[in-house]
Amino acid sequence: MSIPENTGNSYIIDETLLKKLPETPGVYQFKNKLGKVIYIGKAKNLRARVSQYISGTDSRPMVESLMKKAGSVEIILTNSETEALVLENLLIKNRQPLFNIDLKDDKTYPYLAVTDEEWPRLISTRRLSKKLKYFRGPFTQINLMNSLKSLIQALYPLKYCSNRRPKGCINFELGLCPAPCRKDADREKYLENVKNTIEILQGKKWNEISRIIQEKIASNSEALNFEKAAKLRDLMTLLPDIKRKYSVEFSGNGAEDFFCFKRLGDLLFAAAARYSEGKMISLKSFSATGIFEDMKSWISTFLSSFYAGRDTPDKIFLFPETLSKEEISAILQRDIRKTGLAGGEILKMLQTNIEQNIRVFLNDTEKTNKSLSVISKFLKTKVSSILCLDISTLYGEYNVAGAVWWENGRFDKKKYRRYKIKTVKGVDDFGSLREVAARLLKRWKENSLEKPSLLLIDGGEGQVSSVNSVINGAVKVAGIIKDRHNVKGMELLIDGLGNELVLQDTVFAMTLKAIRDETHRFSITFNRELRKGRLDFPLAKVKGIGKARENALLEKFRTISAIKEATPEELMQVKGITKEIAEEILRALK
Q1: Please, what are the domains in the chain?
Q2: pTM score above 0.90
Q3: Please, what sign has the CA dihedral across residues 370, 374, 380, 384?
Q4: What is the pLDDT of residue 443?
Q5: Torsion angle of alpha carbons 172, 176, 182, 184, nearest 10°?
C-alpha cells in the first residue's frame, strides 16, 4: 500500500473546523504551527473523533500536550476502518510523529553470543552488533546464563580472550582453552567446536548432551585429567535445571512469534518470544508510550516497529487477538501463513515478563513523583510515604492484619508489620481495623513507630470512617475500593470526606493498585502461616450446604467455632437447615 498524496484536505484548527470534516472513515494527522506532523490517528468517524480532541473531552494525559502544539489537522479518507488502520500504520512508520509510539526494549539483559572473527569466541554481551556470528537471549537469570556458558565451554572449548599469545596462557595449561593463538592449533577441530556451540544455542543436541558429558567425564578420567572431569560432574548436576529453564517446549514447526500486550493508559507493555522448531530462541520485553485510539492501533504500530530490521516468521500469535491474519499481512507487507491467539504456558511466561517490566517501570523516580503529586492534590496534603492496611480472615477465624510500607517508589520490607486481632471475634472488618488503628496510634504517640504521611485502607467509606474514628486526624486516611465486577470506573480512591477519585489506567493508579495488591498478599500469607498444619472444614464441603446456606450460617453464628458449639436446634433456626443437615454439620466439624 502506497502513501496517498493529500493536497486539499488540510484545515487550520479553529471554531469552524468541525463543520468541514466528513463523518466517514479515514486517517487524521495533527501538524504543529510549522507544518510538521506530530500525531497520526485513524477513525471510523473523522468528525466525531477529531471533535474529542478539539473540545477537550478526550481525557488521556498526553492529549493536552498534543493540542497545545497542534496548529492544523490534515485528513485522508478511506473506504473502511480496516483500510484506515493499515494506512495509519504506514504513515506512522514513514513519518515517526512525536506523539505516536516510542518503543523501548530490554537491552539491559545479557545475551550469549558467538563472535564473528577468525577464531570465534563464546561471550556474554549486552550490546548486539554485526560482529556476532550468532546470539541467543536475552537472559533474565544471569546465573542460568553463566551455568550454560560454562557447560558449553566445557564440552566444546573456545578461546577465552581476544589476545594473541604464541605460547598459550594459563587457560591452555589447565586444559580449558584450545589456544588457537599457538602455531600448531587444529583449526578444523576448532571450527567444529564453533559449529557445535552454535547448535546448542539454537536448541539442538539437547537430547544427547547427557551422553556427551558422560563420555567426556570418562575420557578425562582415563587421561588423569581429574580436575576437568570433576567440573563436568558438577555441570551434570545442573543440567536438569538448565534444560528446564532454558528451553520451553511446545509442539510446532518452523519460526513462530508469540506476543502478549497490556495497555495502561498511554503506556503499552509487551513481551515477545520467538520459537524455532519447537524451541524458544529469544524472549524480549518492551514498554512504549504514545497516543492511540484503540488496542488495534497500538498493536499494529508495535508490530511494524518490532519487525523493522527483523525477519518476519510464518506464524504470529497475539494476546489479545486484535488483528486478523489479513490485517497483519497488510501491515507487515508480507503474507503470514497463520495467526491466532497466544495461550497456555507460553502466555503465562509472557505475562510474567510483562508484570516484571511493569514493576521495574513503577520504580522510576520521575513516575513516583508524578503519582505522589496526584494523590497529594486529591487529599490536599503532601504525601511522601504510604502505610497500607488489609484485614485477612477465614470464616471469622485467624483474624489478622498486614501493614505494608511504601516510600520513594519502593516497598520497604523492614517496615512491614503483622498484627493478630485480639479483641474482635468473627467476621468484623470494621472492628478489626479499629483495633489495629488504636495500636498504631499508641506506637506513634510513643515515637516507637514511624508515622506515614498516608494510611491507606483496603476498603471503602465504612472502613475509612472506622479508622478515622480512632486515628482522629493523626494522619491522613484514604481507602481503595476494589473493582470486584470488572466494571471500568468502579475502582476508586476515597478520602475521609467521601470524595472519590476514579482509578483509571494511569501510572498513578498502577502505583496504588500495586501497593494494595502487595498488602493483600502480605496479610493472606500471614493468615495462612497461622493456620498451617491445622485442619479447617469449610462449610461448603459439608453435604447439603451450598453457598447460600453457608453465608446464612456465618451471618448468624459469625465463626466456625460458634457453629461447632451450637445445638442442632440452634442450627435449625437458620433457613434451609433441616435436622439431618444440622447433625451432618456437627459430625463434620467435630
Answers
A1: 10-100 (3.40.1440.10), 111-246 (no CATH), 255-361 (3.30.420.340), 365-530 (3.30.420.340), 539-588 (1.10.150.20)
A2: no
A3: negative
A4: 92
A5: 110
